[in-house]
Amino acid sequence: MSSTNATTNYGTTISIESLKVIAEIIGIPSLSDECGKELSEDITFKLKHIIQNAMKFMTHGKRTRLIPSDVDNSLILYNIEPLYGFSSAEHIPFRFASGGGRELHYTEDKELDLNDVVLNSTIKYPLEASVRSHWLAIDGIQPTIPENPPPISKDEQKLESVNPIANLKKKESDKESHGKPTTGKIHKLRNVETVHVKQLATHELSVEQQLYYKEITEACVGSDELRRTEALQSLSNDPGLHAMLPRMCTFIAEGVKVNVVQHNLALLIYLMRMVKSLQDNPTLYLEKYLHELIPSVLTCILSKQLSRTPEMDNHWALRDFASRIISQISKAFNTSVNNIQCRITRLFSDALSNESSHLPTIYGALQGLAELGPQLVKLHIVPRIESLASRVDKVLLDSSSSQADKIAATQIKNLLIKVLTPVLKNSQPDIEKYENEFGSLAHPLYSAVTKARTPSLSGGIGSRT
């Protein structure tokens, strides 16, 4: 189109000379005048229609200048593949040249450095808009897939958890609304009869749900990491899992009981990842099943032995992960009625104050209190630093201590310094005060707090930027 003389004047036609030039470019050396005349009329007719439709796109786009995308859309309208390479948001200047009785318009080609072209990464074309189908309903039943809303929302699950009588009354009112209104003795008798009626909740799963439950549980505790990742992602994102939630929680609780006795660290980690995925699912409400989840998570935090070889296995990572989970549960479901946070805090505090507590249990209690917040660290850990430090030193200095105990003592010492440093750095460090209150941890804590209070060079630069 750049080599033609077409203008907005609809009476203009493409000259035969322009067609001969185009024919020479594509390899046709000699084009007869009769053939050029026929081609000129046909191409002019088609170009007029393409330009007219392109101007329609321009008008609907509320623009006063025709752009290459308008021409491309016009070509697509006629099922013609658009010309790639000329779709530019900027104006493309055409240069004019004449000579030998010919007049041409052309675009100036820029010289490119091949090294820049080779080294630059290929630009990915954006994906076009597409339409994907899914089942809205099958035989009148809405399937539980991410595209469909969940059958029971999280608010309804919460209402059922807090007040199950309301759900029963709702069902009774629905039944009465479909029947005849009852009055007199019959109405009083019905009220008397329904006083001791308890909710009949059926927990039968369909064949598809049973298959899903089987596949999910096998994948979560199986050896295939790819399948496990997909299963955990399904638990954290898929709606409509509330019907299987009781069985999932029971599976986790029973799995923790068995594998703690067998000291199977890997399966305990997999089960805690299941708890985290269920907790991350925005369509599930877990308060009805906290009586199974909280003991399982606390077991992974406070158990004295979680692996067969505690001196070699990193069971500390499991205790840290479970502590983060219990902190999230406490913050999400704590109320003035259940006092979950208070009860969990008391459990951790009792584990620290108990002289017979094993070192891994003390580590778990420290990590659990640290995840619950700095205020609890100040109230429950700071007063016990001296006694904890003396117990750690006793294990480290005793030659008869096992390798597992020495590793646990070192872990507790490092954890105390890590946990206490953010709490103590708000006050001016005093080495004499630290020696009186913190025992053998005084000097490491003093060094850590002093370092934390002194902004580093990189930290200062980062704060200014």
The multimeric state of the shown protein is single chain
Average predicted local confidence, pLDDT? 80
- Distance from N terminus to C terminus (CA atoms, Å) equals 52 Å
Q: What is the element string, with H for helices and E for strands?
A: HHHEEHHHHHHHHHHHHHHHHHH
Radius of gyration of CA atoms, rounded to a whole number: 38 Å
* Low-pLDDT segments: 1-9, 184-190, 193-202, 456-465
Helix content: 55-70%
The total of beta strands comes to 2
**Helical stretch tally:** 21
Q: Taking strands numbered 1, 2, ... along the chain, how are they ordered across the largest sheet?
A: 1-2
**Largest sheet, strands/sense/barrel:** 2 strands, antiparallel
> How much of the polypeptide forms β-strand, as a percent range?
under 5%
Q: How does the helix and strand content classify structurally? A: mainly alpha
Gross geometry:
elongated
Structural key phrases:
mainly alpha, 2 strands, elongated, disordered N terminus
Report a brief summary of the structure:
The chain is mainly alpha-helical. The chain contains 21 helices and 2 strands.
